[in-house]
Amino acid sequence: MKRSRLARAAVAATAVAGLVLAGCGDTDAPGGEQADISVLATDASQMQTLKKLTKRHFTAETGITVDYTLLPENEARERMNREFATQAGTYDVASVSAYEVPIYADNGWLAPLDSYVKADEDFDQDDVFPNLVSSLTGEDGKLYAEPFYGEGSFLMYRKDLFREDGLTMPPNPTWKQVADLAARVDGTDGASGICLRGLPGWGQNLAPLNTVVNTFGGTWYDTDWNARLTAPEFKKAVGFYVDLLRSHGQPGADRMGVLEILDRFVEGKCAMMYDATSLASSIEADGSAVKGKVGYVPAPHDRTEKAGWLWTWAWGIQQAAENKDAAWEFISWASSKEYQELVGQEVGWTAAPAGNRKSLYSNPEYQQAAGAWYRQEYTAATDSADPRNPGVGPRPYTGVGFLGIPEFAVLGTAVSEQIAAAIAGQQSVDTALEKSQDLAQAAAAKYRGE
User: Fold this and answer.
1) Element (H, E) at 213
2) Of 45, 134, 269, 301, which sees the most CB atoms within 10 A?
3) How many CA atoms, within 13 angstroms, populate the side-chain half-sphere of residue 380?
4) Which sign, positive or negative, has the C-alpha torsion 98, 221, 418, 248?
5) Which band of pLDDT confidence, cut at 50, 70 and 90, is reported for residue 207?
6) CB 175, CB 300: distance < 8 Å
7) Residue-wise over 322-336: b if at least 16 C-beta within 10 A, else e?
8) Angstrom distance (rounded) from CA 164 to CA 325
9) What is the DSSP letter of 243?
């Protein structure tokens, strides 16, 4: 890939400016040398691929070495929150999400990227999906992160099991239709009617459940920041989700998050699954028991026309980073069209980080490799629910699968534990939501001026 003059300047500027603390991760720097930049990221398959390709391509081309710290999502978030809040400068770059970016930007923890984007003639910012750009832009109108990959959500279903039972999936299903289909297909060839996240965590069971709440007409807060978790619409949505899992979901659902239900689906143990579009590449991978047997349709809805979430793992530069130029060069490479091409050619097109750039979806090689799902993936990435207006009525926060307020990380986790207990049959939905209502009311006290 042709590099800009900024890249050549960055190589010189960072040659002696490495900053990595011992024990922060396995270094990719050759010969035991200190890395020029350090990167903290979630330990996802896309990140593992990036790490494998970095030395042979990015470092060989720019001279910039990279030290990676890859951690499970919860651990990565905990360390990232601590690191950015203290501005310790240990990591130059971190994988931040659509949830963290506005909060970090508002606190001055992220470096704006606008000047880098403007100076980097090769990056092609116009190719990045506008809705992702919007989610990574602060209230001040500045860009604070670039998407590594993006995702929406959709419904995946076993075409072979549906044919066996004489069932037809509607092209744009409602949740009622999905529940009816789950009841009819449940048990066919030993598969559960549907698999959904039940594991506690604001990024686990609440991610899909919040989309159900939104489309059923619920909201966490009214415009005066009064909690609404015991309102009829919210109760109906949560009751529906819990009942669907308990009646036709996977066994032990309260202990299963995204990776666990993906494993079950790939093993042929689920007739349907509602989750992230990024899972399709694993479902259609060699070795999957359901490869070529799966259909994909938009996220189910109820009172709204759209219900799917919008999410991205993106690259942000810590404001305290000493090596910002080199950090941008890494971001420019890792989020580029050329990197997608590299993954496509060396690893396979279904492994390319998707959902972030328009050009990928007009690439004939990607279209062929991802033929089973790329059209629905593109639709989910470009036409998901509006984070500023995802439901029926007005609300004081943004977000589809999450609430864009700092308190949600703690609040959402606490509420998700109550939901998981209801899924496990340890308490009723009403009890879970009464407890959650109190938590939500207390969490928003400062917004009510109390």
Assistant:
1) helix 206-215
2) 301
3) 33
4) negative
5) very high
6) yes
7) ebbbbbbbbbbbbbb
8) 57
9) H
| 355-400 residue pLDDT tens | 999 999 999 999 999 999 999 999 998 888 888 899 999 999 999 9
CA–CA separation, 398 and 11 (whole Å): 39
pLDDT tens, residue by residue, 169-191: 999 999 999 999 999 999 999 99
What mean pLDDT, rounded, does the chain reach? 91
Give the C-alpha separation, 220 to 381, whole Å: 24
Q: In the structure encoding, which two tokens stand for residue 225, read together?
A: 């920041």
Bridge partners, 274 (sequence order): 155
- pTM value is 0.86
The torsion region of residue 108 among left (phi > 0), alpha (psi -120 to 50) and beta comes to: left
| Tokens representing residue 64 in the block | 């910039």
* Pair of tokens at residue 209: 């459940």
Q: Which is nearest to 269 in space by CA: 190, 348, 167?
A: 190
> Which pair of tokens denotes residue 78?
């905990």
Distance CA(167)–CA(161), nearest Å, equals: 8
Buried b (16+ CB within 10 A) or exposed e, 150-165: bbbbbbbbbbbbbeeb
State the burial class of residue 449 (Cβ atoms within 10 Å of its Cβ: 0-12, 13-18, 19+). Answer: exposed
The yes-or-no verdict on residue 345 having pLDDT over 70 is: yes
Using only C-alpha atoms, the chain has a radius of gyration, in whole angstroms, of: 22
